[in-house]
Write a structure and sequence with these properties.
The protein is of the alpha+beta class. It has helices at about 15-25, 80-85, 105-115, 120-145, 145-160, 180-185, 190-200, 215-225; strands spanning about 30, 35-40, 45-55, 55-60, 65-75, 80, 95, 100-105, 165, 170, 205-210, 210-215. It folds into two domains: about 10-140, Sandwich (Jelly Rolls), CATH 2.60.120; about 145-225, Orthogonal Bundle (Arc Repressor Mutant, subunit A), CATH 1.10.10. Helix 5 packs across helix 8 (about 215-225) and helix 6 crosses helix 7.
């Protein structure tokens, strides 16, 4: 079934399978090598992307050259929807953290399918609204939380999007450095490393093959709220 026929279904929500099908049928596929930019600040935001394989970092640079990480994405994640809908230039940059395969749909096709199928419009509206709430939560964290709370918050968000249940906890299947975490919460790599050390001593986390294992989700959530 093509996307043009999705509105004939009784359900008002798109399934993940239908979303993937939409990108495969209506879009194109591109491959980016580790470290290769996908788009840069100021370029035309005329595409919406779906990650098939790999990892993508969304961020921007400050006037003094420091990096601010706004989002860390993996397989199944989408980006670019707000710019594609509003026809705005990118305000951020996107970089492949590892070899990455993307599906992308041009703005004109996206708008045409939104007009044909209201469920696509609803799906995009929900995504943009959810991102807005995440941004507000991040701003609150940056302004009012301690450094340890910020680190705990990042780990919980990574577990939410990239966590895999294991016998002894939740493994974050996403390779991220302490520097990248620091760039996400506007703190130093040393501060993040110190928080990790204390979390390990408290029995909240462990490190397994460069991945973080959350051993006590409840206590880490308490830490994030402190």
């Amino acid at each position: 079934m093509g996307v043009s026929g999705l509105h004939e279904e009784k359900s008002t929500l798109l399934t993940p399978q239908e979303i993937t099908q939409f990108f495969m049928e209506q879009g194109k596929i591109m491959t980016f090598h580790k470290g290769q930019p996908i788009f840069s600040c100021g370029s035309k935001g005329n595409r919406i992307y779906l990650i098939n394989h790999g990892e993508v970092k969304i961020g921007r640079s400050t006037p003094d050259g420091k990096e601010i990480i706004l989002d860390l994405l993996g397989p199944g994640d989408l980006f670019g929807e707000a710019e594609a809908i509003t026809n705005q230039n990118w305000k951020n940059t996107a970089l492949a953290k590892k070899d990455t395969i993307l599906h992308w749909v041009p703005r004109e096709i996206l708008l045409r399918q939104m007009a044909k199928d209201p469920r696509i419009s609803l799906w995009l509206l929900q995504r943009i609204g959810a991102k807005q709430l995440e941004t507000e939560n991040l701003l609150e964290t940056l302004l009012f939380k301690s450094a340890h709370s910020k680190v705990a918050k990042v780990l919980l968000e990574l577990a939410k999007h990239h966590g895999q249940k294991k016998q002894n906890g939740t493994m974050i299947d996403y390779l991220i450095t302490h520097q990248e975490i620091g760039n996400t919460i506007a703190t130093t790599r040393e501060t993040v490393s110190y928080a990790f050390m204390e979390f390990r001593q408290m029995g909240l986390i462990d490190t397994v093959k460069r991945r973080t294992l959350i051993k006590d989700m409840d206590r880490l959530e308490e830490m994030a709220l402190s």
